[in-house]
Structures are given as structure tokens and as C-alpha cells.
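Q: I'm writing up a methods section and want to include an example of the input and output format. Could you take the sequence below and give the corresponding predicted C-alpha cells, formatted cleanly so I can copy it straight into the document?
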Amino acid sequence: MIAAAAENNALGKDNDLLWHLPDDFKRFKKLTSGHKIIMGRKTYESFPKPLPNRTHIIITRDKNYTVNYDECLVVHSLEEAIDLVENEIAFIIGGGEIYKQGEKASDKIELTRVHGTFEDADTYFPEIDENYWMLTKQEFHPTDEKHKLSFTYLTYVKKEDTLKSL
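A: Here is the clean output for your methods example:
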């Protein structure tokens, strides 16, 4: 899973992000380029067009939903999405409900923790349970001329003894 979430786990409002962090966008692009990205329909529709150099797997309950891009596949459950990912790296990129469902199937979380709280959000990242997840890396990014908020890149890996129990 890959996400940017505030300290209160806020992800977004009205299908948009609550902040603008250019370095986080660059990191997202670097990590996800060349891989499959799994998302809900609303997340997909928040993009002006498909993201380059990635296969988009879009989850929707709407059996009639179609997308006219070769790099996009439409499925109707997270299980179907995961079936399209064999032994390759794929990223669950949102939204909130897809993250909740995806936690069991994931073995790693790349989280950008945005230092701030946003009470007016309507989408949230699930709480990270440190009984199941171990923080393995963190890198702080202070505010600067391009970033009004500070943030920390956090990498969590699922603990070995909990890989199947979540």
C-alpha cells in the first residue's frame, strides 16, 4: 500500500488531496512507475487521465463500468484485482475503503505522514496496528518554499508471524 495521510489519518476530501507536496508526488511516481496500481473507481476518476507507465486496476461494484484506455483493467473486488497480480510488485493506492480491504493482502506500507490534522476530511487511512506492522525506515522532510507542511516518509513491513493472521 502507498498513501499520504495526516496525523489523524485523513487522506482527502471530495475526491481530492488536502495538501500539495511535490516531493511526495515524485516519490509516488518513482515507487509505482512500471508496476500495477490498484484503486477504487473514485480514486481512478480523480485523475485527469491514467498515470503513465503503470497498469491501473480499478475496483468498482458497477458491472457496466468501462474505461477506454488499454492500461486500465476493471474488476469488481479486491480479490479479482489481486488475481491480476502474480509474483510482481503492485501498489494499492486508495481510496479509504480499498486500503481497509487491502491491509490483509499487503506486506508493506509506504506511508507519507503529513504533519498536521484535517478535521474536514471525508476519507481516512486505516490505523496502523504495530502488533502487525513494523516500522523499518523513516525520513523527515521539513517545510520549505515548495512544501507548506512537513512530512515523514515511513516504511512499514508486516511482521513475519502475522503475515496471514491480520
